[in-house]
Amino acid sequence: MFRKLATLDEAQEIISQHLPCKPLGTEDTKLLKAPNRVLAEDITAKLNIPPFDRSTVDGYAVKAEDTFGAEESKPVKLRVCGMADAGELPKTVVGSGTVVRIVTGAPIPDGADAVVMLEDTELKGDELLIYDSLVEGTNIMKAGSDIRKGETVLKKGTVLGSGEIGVLAAIGLSKVKVHAIPRVAVLSTGAEVAKPGGKLRPGKVYDTNAYSLSAAVVESGGEPIYLGVFPDRASEIQKALRRALASADLVITSGGVSVGPKDLLPEVLDSLGKPGVVLCGIAIKPGKPATMALIGEKMVFSLPGHPTSALLVFHLLVHPVIQKMAGRKLGAPLKVKAFAAARMFPAKGRRTFIMVRLRQDTLKRLLAEPVPTGLSGAITTLARADGFIEIAENQQFLDEGEEVTVRLLKSRAS
Amino acid sequence: MFRKLATLDEAQEIISQHLPCKPLGTEDTKLLKAPNRVLAEDITAKLNIPPFDRSTVDGYAVKAEDTFGAEESKPVKLRVCGMADAGELPKTVVGSGTVVRIVTGAPIPDGADAVVMLEDTELKGDELLIYDSLVEGTNIMKAGSDIRKGETVLKKGTVLGSGEIGVLAAIGLSKVKVHAIPRVAVLSTGAEVAKPGGKLRPGKVYDTNAYSLSAAVVESGGEPIYLGVFPDRASEIQKALRRALASADLVITSGGVSVGPKDLLPEVLDSLGKPGVVLCGIAIKPGKPATMALIGEKMVFSLPGHPTSALLVFHLLVHPVIQKMAGRKLGAPLKVKAFAAARMFPAKGRRTFIMVRLRQDTLKRLLAEPVPTGLSGAITTLARADGFIEIAENQQFLDEGEEVTVRLLKSRAS
Fold first, then answer.
1. What is the distance between the alpha carbons of residues B229 and B224, in angstroms, rounded to a whole number?
2. Which of A157, A138, A119, A131 is closest to A75 using CA atoms?
3. Which CATH number fits domain B335-408: 3.40.50.300, 3.40.1710.10, 2.40.340.10, 3.40.50.2300?
4. What is B54-141's CATH topology?
């Protein structure tokens, strides 16, 4: 167990040591329900795409050699002897001196090796004048030229966007094996915390964290299970956490982890099973009281009660865990470069994160403006910040005008 | 009606002329279901946050003046006469010479105007030694200092992320009025097109577009209604489109819009109601046959059958319409700068879009590499392209090494 403050790097190392090496289970999903799910298997095409030689234009299927020498002023004359429709096997064979009318997407009839476009022909009775000389293969999409039977078209771990789902449909799949979505139980603690929706009794405040963290779980690709608010009593929190561990893959609590007499979480966590608390406080600001326990193989993150701190620690530590459990590759977080709009100082000896709002100055430079997260901005900061910047433990300060990297909390683009 | 090819700018102008000026209706949603929904009303706080003066630390509530002069070597001595718990109204008043034990988050008892931290005190029986001199307001978060009653905390049109949902919870809302999600009917046409999942009969190909476009609708913030595949027969397509118009806010078809004998869509669209086809072909490559009709106030987009072309036209024209209908502000699309990995040419007289894949070269420069979209890459391009670049109608070519702006089809970050 780690009973002293860990550095952020140590904390991340401890968490990744305890991460299950494999994502959660897999499940089949219908292709129409698959957007944004993560593929749990390599996908191999069981057929050629296209499955047959297809015409890419409306026109006439011919033997290319029958058109040799044709030009604007000297057309060749061939006999039309049938029609090749889309969706049907051609009934006619193209022999020397004959052509078959064909539409876009229709299979090429036997005997033909090119298609002349409608625009380059003229029909006179059942005779066709062709004004263009074709080479073999003209306007034909060969069987397997897009995807070859046996080819691996998509790899395990791919996040399914519109393009990938199109590929899966094209090779005939109507369902696909994907990684299960991590179920994340979220609960708040505190005698003063009340559920939104009801009337607020004196001395109480509405729960913020269970809601903002549930939404953050959705944004990370998990499914939140909202368990509600529990008073600061060991027995009730213990019962709630047992329920959470039974129903979820991961548990997030907030509140009850600093140093007061009612900050019971670390103790309760240790009582739930082995190994118990593995991380108890991190040398970051804000977020210092963040605690992590392991009960069997399930992780419990106990985040600070301050809404902005809770969400920051979620982004730093919990988001990557949910991503990993969901089978997602850990992509680089979205970042932008900006210029510090003010001088900013780190907390002594702690990696410091400062919430910032982005705005353009008159020269169209992007400025990162600190948003107060302290006493008077606990909640409004949540909605005002576009992202956060990081100041190293040993850095004296970040100067006004200095270039900084802002990690975005959300993408502003649509 | 517009029966000649429109330029892309004209097409966008025509579409925005016909866009309904208001988003669709609104609906109430539970806060836990609200992530990524769009707020349909300004939100005003009906209470102060915090609702009362709160202690931000564990310690003792005091009259600041009683601590004046206290220091490490010369503590002041005060009498403890009660306890202020979180979640309850304090029962004790702090008089001169007395303090009340208080925990983080508890309301400040009457008479007190500062809180001394536990660490700066020492308890001897019921007497407290205070080693620090406090000013008024120390460690107190004043009522309304985070959000003031009557303040507008979030504006109509805001997309609800974790931070915004936290703010709504904090002011006691458990549900919220959001814009309805646009329902978008999606269907494919073509005698040769078959639904994925079944066995493929000779001459048929599996439907790609209805699936990739349905997924693109989800990515744009709409709800797809998959209607299936319809053969190239006017009566059946007409029936399907009537059904689509009755059940959806917007309709997307693909296939059946180029120049062959079975390309019936424009004719069928005109038969469905007034004004009918308002846009018939666009001078872009790919995507030239794209058609748009207006039946009453509902839009029908008929996209080309080629999977990559269909998805490109969706991104250029349909995506912004869905966003607008959903009450979303039209954010700038996600773009990155890169260097052209090869010389690329536009189609004569048409705005040309080239699908590209991004990769880093050995100098860590981001390169945009064209992905073939032609005959042999109709479907695989969908999964290979990261985005597309644009070449103007009058531009001769884009040179290798030239800086280009890549519009991303999806965000690669997580």
1. 15
2. A131
3. 2.40.340.10
4. Molybdopterin biosynthesis moeA protein; domain 3 (2.170.190)
Give me the phi and psi of A15, to 5 degrees please: -65, -45
Structure confidence by residue, pLDDT tens digits, B299-356? 999 999 889 999 999 999 999 999 999 998 877 778 889 999 999 999 888 999 999 9
* DSSP notation for B55-75: ESSSEEEE-GGGGTT-BTTB-
Write the residue in B89, B214, B231 that is nearest to A32 by C-beta. B214
- Which carries the bigger pLDDT value, residue A173 or residue A19? A173
pLDDT per residue over A319-343, tens digit each?
Answer: 999 999 999 887 777 888 999 999 9
Residue that has been written with the tokens 């999600």 in this structure: B181
Chain mean position to CA A3: 35
B364 CB within 8 Å of a chain A CB: no
Residues pairing with A83 in the sheet: A101
B27-47+149-179 belongs to which CATH class?
A: alpha beta
Q: Where are the alpha helices (DSSP H) in B189-233?
A: 209-219
Measured CA to CA, the distance from residue A399 to residue A404 in angstroms comes to 10
Shortest distance, CA A158 to any CA of chain B (angstroms) = 10
Please state which of the four CATH numbers 3.40.50.620, 1.20.1250.20, 3.40.980.10, 3.30.300.30 is assigned to the domain occupying B8-25+180-325.
Answer: 3.40.980.10
pTM score of the predicted model: 0.92
SS3 state at B43:
strand
Q: What is the domain partition of chain B in residue ranges? A: 8-25+180-325, 27-47+149-179, 54-141, 335-408
Say what the pLDDT of residue A412 is. Answer: 44
Interface predicted TM-score of the whole assembly (ipTM), two decimals:
0.91
CA distances for A140 relative to A130, A223, B189, B275, angstroms: 17, 48, 21, 38
- Residue ranges of A 255-284 with Cβ closer than 8 A to chain B: 258-262
Interface test with B, best of A43, A49, A162 (most B CBs within 10 A): A162
CA dist., res. A13 & res. B382, Å (int): 38
Inter-residue contact B200 to B194 (CB < 8 Å): yes
DSSP secondary structure string for all residues of A348-360: TTSEEEEEEEEEE
Which of chain A's residues have a Cβ under 8 Å away from the Cβ of B58? 258-261
What pLDDT, on the 0 to 100 scale, is given for residue A348? 87
pLDDT recorded at residue A414: 33
